[in-house]
Every structure is written in structure tokens, then in C-alpha cells.
Write a structure and sequence with these properties.
The structure is a homodimer of 192-residue chains. Chain A has 5 helices and 11 strands, in the order αβββαβαββββαβαββ. The first copy, chain A, has 192 residues and is α/β, with parallel strands linked by helices. Chain A has a single domain, classed as Rossmann fold (3-Layer(aba) Sandwich), CATH 3.40.50.
Chain lengths: 192, 192
């Protein structure tokens, strides 16, 4: 998606060979107009699928997933990190390791909101090692939900996550795939 | 807001005299159509203010704040809980106590995204003891930003947060204020 790639080139900061900071527009400050365009693109890609729910994980996936759910006219469900006293009863649960936060999270989804009746589109802002996505996929499959698509805003193609998911046959689409980044020069090269 | 109150009566669950569960439509599964209507209502209320940014805190504030920012045509900034390796440099920071999670969080906002130039609308899904809101207000005031409004979806009027903020003169509007809840009968009474 050209608009997104241009924005990454303009405002993204390569702070190490593995870390691309896009907090100007995606995951701290959020450019809702850009996210609207991103959601429109995901709608174009996935509109022929019988999606009845968008599924993401808190926190930074929520913004983009909201707009995608709005475009598709379906509810959003977001998985929660760690147990909260307000979420009781039966839950699907797994653990994921966060590269960004350098820790392990418990991730839960109430069984009320995901079932074998659901045809879901998984949406997230970033895909690197796919730890978070693997967790969401595990929960979705435990629930018996059909994964109709996986939509990612930015994939770091030089890390192993995306390749692994494609090998396993998941219908993954990333709007911008970064082939390589150079922290010294700041250069970002996209996969064409 | 009548539509919201009806939804709370239909789908809200009083699980103790202090806990109202609305995870069917607000903070686990998200009804994006309802959130669109909520955002329209906040736009109506705050449209005459010179708001240039919507400000919230992860995670459950993000969904509603996204739609409000979209209606107002301004960016969203969300405060982050705990330090992430991707957020370096100068930040505004405070600590808040979460009733829901029964723990204390560090909350940070990059100084790049909040300044004395900003006229902000603070948006959150819930207001009870105002611990989270107090943290957001503290950060906003430290940044020198003007708080043009505070928009809350559900205020638990029987807890002290809202009254305290109104006494201190903050322009607080809650779309539904709960006067009392009864965990035994499930009854929910709104402030008129």
C-alpha cells in the first residue's frame, strides 16, 4: 500500500536493525485518517470472505482493528493480556512472549466471544516474530473459529514470523513488508 | 445518551456492587456501530471547542477514542502503561492505581505528542475512582496542554471520581451515569 509505505519512509525511525519506530502515526500517536485508508484497503482485500468478526490483541492492534471492523460492519473482539478481575468465567488462554516488552504475557479471550460459529479476520499493527499472532491463532483454533484472513499493517520481512505463517498456509496479507532496515543510515527497503 | 443506557440495561451485568461488566459491547467485544454513535454524540457536545487532539490511555479507552478522533478529524494519542523498549527519549510519566487490575502502573507519554500547543479532549470508557483520569490530567497539565473537555462513556456516579473532577472545575461529560447498582437483583439505576 503506497500511502503507508510513503508514510513509513517519511516518519518511521530505524532505531536498531530490528526496531522500527512508527509511534508518530501508528502506535502511540495515531493518524486516524491513515488508519481509515488502511481499513479501506483491508476491506478491499477481504470483502469476499464471510467474515463476521475482527479479532486482535490489546493494545496497539485495537486502533486499526476498530476501523477495519467498522468498514466490514462486524464486531471487534480483542484478546486481553493478563487476568483482570472483571473477566471471569470460561476463557481461552495462552502465553505469548513480547519482543517489544521483553516479557511473557498471559493472553485470554472469553469463550462468549469466540466459537466454532465464527469466521474471523485477525488484524494487528506489526508482524515480526509472530509471537502475538501465534497466540491469537492458537486461541482461534482452540475455539474452532475459521480464520478467513490475517491482515497486518507492517511486516518485518527479515524476521521469521511472516514466512512461517505463509508456509503453514495461513491467508496472510501485510500492507507493507520491510525487506531490510539499516539503523546507521536509516534506510528502509520494502519487499516489492 | 438513551441508546447507550438501553444497551447497558440489556447487556450490562452487575457482578458486584462496584463492578459493572460491559464486555459484550465495550471493552472486550466491541460493538463498533454503537461506538460510532457514541463518537457522534461526543462530537455534538464538544464540536465548538478548538480541539486538536484526542487523548486516552491503553487499552480499553482506545476503541472509543479512535472513533471520536475520526469524527473530530484530529489525531489520537494514547498514554502507555509501563515502559516499552520502543519508546525512548523524553516522556511525561506518572503512576496510576488500577481498581480493575488491582495493581499500580507506570504511565508514560512521549513529549513529542503532547505540548502547550495542544487543546485536548480526554476520552475514556469508564470513570469510577478517576485514578486513570487523574493520571492523564496530571500528564496533560505537566505538558501545558489545555483540557477542552473530558468525555466518558460510563461513569459510576456512586464512586467518588466524577464528583471530585467536577468540583475541581474540569469540563466532564459522561454519556451514562450510574446512580446505583444492585448485584443481587441486577438492577441498574441511572442519574437523570
Amino acid at each position: 500500500m503506497e500511502l503507508l509505505k510513503q508514510r513509513i519512509l517519511t516518519d518511521g525511525v530505524v532505531s536498531s536493525d530490528n526496531v522500527l519506530k512508527v509511534d508518530t502515526f501508528l502506535n502511540h500517536q495515531v493518524d486516524v485518517e491513515l488508519l481509515g485508508a488502511i481499513a479501506e484497503e483491508f476491506e478491499r482485500i477481504f470483502q469476499d470472505k464471510p467474515i463476521n468478526k475482527v479479532f486482535t490483541i490489546e493494545s496497539s492492534g485495537i486502533a486499526v482493528a476498530c476501523f477495519v471492523a467498522q468498514r466490514l460492519g462486524v464486531p471487534l473482539v480483542f484478546a486481553k493480556k493478563a487476568q483482570s478481575v472483571n473477566l471471569e468465567g470460561d476463557v481461552f488462554a495462552t502465553r505469548i512472549e513480547s519482543y517489544t516488552h521483553r516479557r511473557v504475557f498471559d493472553v485470554i479471550v472469553s469463550k462468549k466471544y469466540l466459537s466454532a460459529e465464527d469466521h474471523i479476520l485477525i488484524v494487528d499493527d506489526f508482524l515480526a516474530n509472530a509471537c502475538a499472532l501465534d497466540g491469537l491463532i492458537e486461541i482461534a483454533e482452540e475455539a474452532g473459529a475459521i480464520i478467513e484472513g490475517i491482515g497486518i499493517v507492517i511486516e518485518k520481512g527479515h524476521q521469521r514470523g511472516g514466512a512461517g505463517l505463509r508456509e503453514r498456509g495461513y491467508p496472510l496479507t501485510s500492507l507493507a513488508i520491510i525487506e531490510s532496515m539499516n539503523a546507521e543510515t536509516g534506510e528502509i527497503i520494502f519487499r516489492s
